[in-house]
Specification:
Elements: E1 10-16, H1 21-33, H2 39-47, E2 49-58, H3 64-84, E3 88-96, E4 106-114
Antiparallel strand pairs: 1-2, 2-4, 3-4
Helix pairs in contact: 1-2
Amino acid sequence: MDSSLVDLYGLIQIDLLDECNEEIAELKEDVEEARGSRRAEVIKTLDESRTMVAVQVLWQGRETEPTLLKIDALWIGCFLIARVCSTRMVRATTTVPASSWKSGDCTEHIATGSR
């Protein structure tokens, strides 16, 4: 494939439960501090999590909406697979310091799956 035709939008990391315990614990802390009627449902889903999919979005000077629309295709696929496999998933978004990435600003989207 000609590398000049490739447009990089993000980095994907998939971890099993034993590799993402800290991240799930952090998400649970955030949810426990939040208000909302579905908080208990989200905590239950996090408790049942078996895998985590994280995407670091690489903005590279692009506009927010068109960039996130490209990434949405990944989440739609994850949620469809989850539904087919009777897996529950949750999505959370947090901003990571730009200094963490050579490419500049990024946003981390996390989906956790459970059976």
